[in-house]
Here is the input.
Amino acid sequence: MSASYIAMVFVALLLLVYWRLVALVLAACLLALLVYGLGVIEPESGSAAPARTLAPAEPGSVSPEDVGPPLPR
Here is the structure.
């Protein structure tokens, strides 16, 4: 018997013995996915793309605030 086969049998026996704990963890994961999918909880603001800031392209160039309002069309 190979070592991977023995390890798989050992893990399977542990899962069978602790089946209630496995069911509880799976139910908690399913509930978390359901709540997250419904949009009840929002992702952290740090995980979103950072806000863009307008800055001069080169030192000494004109920033958008210095230009003024756009011209009417």
Q: What stands out?
A: The CA atoms of residues 26 and 40 lie 20 Å apart. The mean pLDDT is 78.
